[in-house]
Amino acid sequence: QKLNVGEESPSCRSLLTYHREVLVSKLRSIQCVLDNLLSSEFLCEEEVEAVQRTDTKPNQVRKILELAQCKGEQACDFLIYIIYTVGDAYVDLQPWLKEINYVPSKDVSVLTVENTDPSKYSEKQRREIGRDTSFIMSYGQREETRLEELYTDTLMELFNGANESLGLLDTLEQLLTDDAVFNPQGETIYVVGDAGVGKSILLQKLQNLWSKKELVTDAIFLFKFRCRMFSTFKDSEQISLRDLLFKYNCFPDLDPDNEVFDYIVRFPHKVLFTFDGYDEIQDDLERYNVPEVSSPDEKAHPLQLLTSLLSGKLLQGSQKVLTARTGIEMQQKVVKKKVILRGFSPSHLKTYIRLHFKDQSQRERVEIQLDASPHLCGLCSTPLFCWIVFKSFTHLHTMHDSFELPESCITLTDIFLLLCEMYLTRSAPPPLSIQRRNARCTAETFKSGLKPLAGFAKLALQGFDKGTFYFSQDELRACGLTEEDEALGFLRSVSEYENTENPATFEFLHLTLQSFLVAFGLILDEDMPLDTILKFFAECSRKKKSSCLPCDFFHNLSPKPSGTRGSQTNEHLQFTNLFLCGLLSKPKTSLMEQLVAPKMLKEKQALLKSYLSTSVKSHIHGLPVHETDEGKKVHVLPNFLWMLRCIYETGSRDIAKMTAKGITAGFIKLGYCNVYSGDCTALNFVLQHRRKLLGLDMDNNNISDYGVKQLRPSLSKMTIVRFCVNYLSDSSIEVLAEELCKCKVVEVLGLYNNCITDAGAKLVAKIIEECPKLRIVKLGKNKITPVGGRYLADAIKKSTSIFDVGMWGNTLGDEGACAFAEALRHHPSLTNLRSAISPPPQLYGFKFGPPHKILQLKKTY
Ligand SMILES: Nc1ncnc2c1ncn2[C@@H]1O[C@H](COP(=O)(O)OP(=O)(O)OP(=O)(O)O)[C@@H](O)[C@H]1O
Predict the structure, then answer these.
(1) Binding-site residues, ligand 1, Cβ < 6 A
(2) Engineered SS bond to 776: which of 285, 695, 748, 857, CB 3.0-4.6 Å?
(3) Of 3.30.300.230, 1.10.533.10, 3.40.50.300, 3.40.50.1370, which CATH number belongs to 12-117?
(4) pLDDT band, residue 840 (cuts 50/70/90)
């Protein structure tokens, strides 16, 4: 039956009659219609209830149509207007609206229509996610900090598919935009960063903003998962996508017809997923190397569902943000955008201090101490380490008046010892004021807390052996841990959704803390064979051929423990090795002797030292060396960095000296190795023992000004200094100018893509003037204006050695370009000067266009 739509538009009432059949079969989301008819007072509560009592869906629609028609033309018009306005929910009826040429009347267009279905579920999600994300984890379950009171921005750097930096993100929201998408077919926004750099907190902030409707996104649903949850399923377990979404996030109430899920399947772009900690399930993914799922109704193992979601086989078009530790390889075709988190910049750190210390005198004290220690600042650029340092400072300061932040040679082991000391003293009452002044006795605290500490260490070790991160209460008890111990702060309970079967499940506050306790466990255990302390070195080596540790060394060691899973990432094991080096170091002997039999401690120390010496020698020997025009060049592998970190943690000058002596090449390349400022202390610890000149390429890392300050003692002997793309400001150039002008041996100075201004340019000019061997200076992509350009051009005029200067990507303007053109004219040896790159100029000999056109000047003969 077709209504003949003539010149005169039919009434809405008659439309409902003529198209009753279409409406009865296609009108879904009935609740939304009822909500809006009720809120606009076309229906009353009793009438709504009467519809809800009606048995089937079609009958409910029939009833609504009858009621609307009884109420009159405007009610019918409004009913159609609801279908028209909430297009997503009534997508099947949109062709019908076209067919009837529906145009809302003036009367109904002023009325408000709200999409209450499926937004009811969305609101529930927002409520629950808002509740779950409002607090930052803190130590102990007694104390929590509001996310908004402590959240501080961190450096987020965009990369393209070729791993080239595209600059920093200004706001968190840019994470979800289409800017810097390098693979439009990819489905996943990939966020990577080192341990504790703030990946989980970044997701938490994103979720929290969404819950408050403060995130600019179309997503009306958000599902958050921690990847480690996916490895808790049995191999044979199969679940549906619906269960994965609702059972492990909040459940839609009153949805007998599956409308929420149907909506999600039809409109995936309305869904945002966050997956945290992809690195933690690498082994399991390898085991589940099975075809992906492509139907939303098909049951599959949760890991299959996960990979299918990430690749877009399931819910294609949904937004997905995935985090992982640095070094995890993700299939390129799946990734559409990549962001690397770099931690706190110096100004972020200042903000964080302000937020953390409400008490002004405490804040000032911390600021002074940090200013005096670039090394500590470097460590504090990792938010987790910063949080531990500040938290323990606050806590220990309430216990002991004289407590100061640790000295400049603080190691990561010191930081985690502080954390443990804080936990172990929390249960003790605050000391009386007389005691406060000199009562801090760390060894005493550890001795009296040995029982729980040993219990946690045992639990942590069991976890690594089994490859699990969750622990049941029974497992805690089996390790001798009591209910009181649970509250000390080492553990936290797992969210209800992550383990719906067993509510009393715990995990360590942070994976790095678990790594630390594992190292403690290896030292405390007096029953294991001695060489068990090396088992994670063995495992790291087994996993990566390129490891810093020689494989042959491990053939004699105990076999891989049963149940241990192989993993593409072994960072948590590397951390355990590092902490082992720290806990078995000389400076920690007096503390550890209180906890382990001194004889055994000595044996373990000796074993570790001999192992490290052997492996360092073998590693250095095995490094790939290239003969170049500039001499022997060695390209260091990322694992070299772990070796350096371990050496620094041992504090052993002997091993450091031996390493320095072993590096025979004149040029070390550490580019793209993810070196952060804290690592520069370790590098310097070794390099300071080197007598010979050295070239150092640390391009494309994250060393920042703190790192350069840490390298200060090694800089004067450097011939090649390449610190391109490293967030350096003028204060780094100050250090460079001071040091490089001491021995004047520098030949190459790479500072491309940093944050150098005219003040820094003036200092570089000084280096150019004073260092007679300097040939190449790269200063492109900085913040140099004509003023800085003039300093540099003047210095270049005087130099006799320089022949290659990179300046493009600054704002030199005509004036700066002219200054360089002039320098070039005066300078017989300068053959290559770049002040911008496009379009490539056709230059024969000298050819200058109008000053503003001087893009690239190249002298060709
Ligand atoms: N942006 C931030 N603002 C304030 N504190 C932060 C921030 N990021 C991280 N932190 C602090 O550091 C701790 C560790 O951060 P988070 O768990 O996010 O690190 P992660 O990168 O996920 O580490 P991992 O890879 O080891 O899981 C947080 O609990 C918090 O105390």
Answers:
(1) 136-137, 150-152, 154, 193, 195-201, 277, 325, 383-384, 387, 510-512
(2) 748
(3) 1.10.533.10
(4) very low
